[in-house]
Amino acid sequence: MSHKNKKSLVDQVKQALDSKLAIGRSKHQDKLSENERKEITSNYIYSWETYHSYLKHGCYFVLWCKEKYRCKTLEQCRSHVDEWLESRKALSASTQKL
User: Fold this and answer.
1) Using one digit for the tens of pLDDT, what is the confidence trace for 52-82?
2) Residue 60 lies in a domain
3) In the chain, how many domains are there?
């Protein structure tokens, strides 16, 4: 695979979040039909504000992984989530939630 075809970590995060983007989709309707499909509302991102917040913190995470572990893919980063969350314990509760 040539270098042009490889996506950066930030692009990989963006692509993962873009696949969950559901602007205009009714969260209320999804909650009503949730009995049929468990946890459907956690499979989608319904607002731009949430999307931008997830993107920002997702980028912080993958850049931390790249710097500390030289990760090149989102899959390689996944094993470091717990350590990254642990390193953020000193932050405020609302920041940790993200």
Assistant:
1) 999 999 999 999 999 999 999 999 999 999 9
2) yes
3) 1
pTM: 0.81
Map residue 23 onto helix, strand or coil. Answer: coil
**DSSP secondary structure string, 30-58?**
HHHTTTTSTTGGGG-B--HHHHHHHHHHH
Q: What is the crossing angle of helices 9-18 and 48-69, to 10°? A: 150
- In terms of residue numbers, what domain contains 35? 8-97
- C-alpha 2/C-alpha 20 separation (Å) is 28
The total number of residues shown for the chain amounts to 98
What CA–CA distances, in Å, run from 25 to 20, 21, 70, 93?
A: 11, 9, 37, 29
